[in-house]
Amino acid sequence: MKTILSPLKIKNQYLICIASVGLVASLCLFTRDFLDHKIVGYLLLVVVSLLAMFLDIIPVLLSAVFSALILNFFFIQPYYTLHIYSTEDALLLILFFIIALINGVLTHKIRKAEKKLQIKEVRVNTMKLYNALLDSLSHELRTPISAIMGAIDTIQSETVSISEENKGKLYTEIEKASLRLNHQVENLLNMSRLESGVIQPKIDWCDLKELIYKVLNHLKEDLQFHKVMVNVDDTLPLFKLDYGLTEQIIYNLLFNASQYTPKGAQINIKVEYNPDVEFDYNPEKIMPCVITISDDGIGFPQEEIEKVFDKFYRLQNSKTGGTGLGLSIVKGFVEAQNGTIKLENREEGGSVFTISFPALVMNTKEISNE
Length: 370
Fold this sequence. Notes:
- The protein is an alpha+beta fold.
- The protein has 9 helices and 8 strands.
- Strands 2-4-5-7-6 form a 5-stranded mixed β-sheet, with helices on one face. It has a 3-stranded antiparallel β-sheet with strand order 1-3-8.
- It catalyses: ATP + protein L-histidine = ADP + protein N-phospho-L-histidine.
């Protein structure tokens, strides 16, 4: 699908970006004394988003950088300098810049994919993905940002006296919101990596027991109201896997369980080495490792199980929020390591994810001979 601006030369696209951002900033400058600089930030973000729908990626990135500089220089006090003395304003500018870049890059990627579509049905599906992405950006990124800014406002307030204990709680809230924001951005970036096909697993010896407890430590706040049981044999061998991808797989599955199972639910993590199971497609008949993560929650609607690994898919009766990316990233990272993943409902209630990898193994007693 071609747009009106597609034939424009790259030089003209740069001029359009600078002129668009400059025009909006100029209009806002006349009302600077009455208009909050946060509103100016939102308006500039809309301009970058609109430009990303029509122009190439480099001019869009330029507009994001240019709008961030204008926001800092003309609208954040002290005016006409790049210095920022307020922590809140510094955080606002950084988050504005990050969101503008992510929004611009992802919107551009969606537009490029849309140009390649030739039939109406595929175009409709692409727009659904685009709408889901915008919903994700507006809710999942805005929520932790609002929490961070609200906590900072309270801490910096000169009219409210805050005890050290309450300050500690606010700092904890800022940390939790920052981790949530980082998790959402990581999911968006990981999906972009999967879509572009740039993921190349770095295979090395991996201690799954150590990896699981590392993930549990990162998720201790989210899992504090759940019963987590880890069933890993002390004699479990090392497996040759990509540590980073496998860590993200387990993290996303456990985070998903923490969010969509009731308080008090039990989550079971089990790792097995099955020397009697072989993969038919593996010419070397390498024996796989099997990771199962199960819970005793409400499970998944049977008619939706086949869809849960689709990009941006959220269960029809699920709670508000979520990007619908976590499980699709899990599947992508599993398949990048030639593994398989299966989701089933347990007869006694709850669900179970079964992940199998055709990984080389090495008993720990052999490490000294490696």
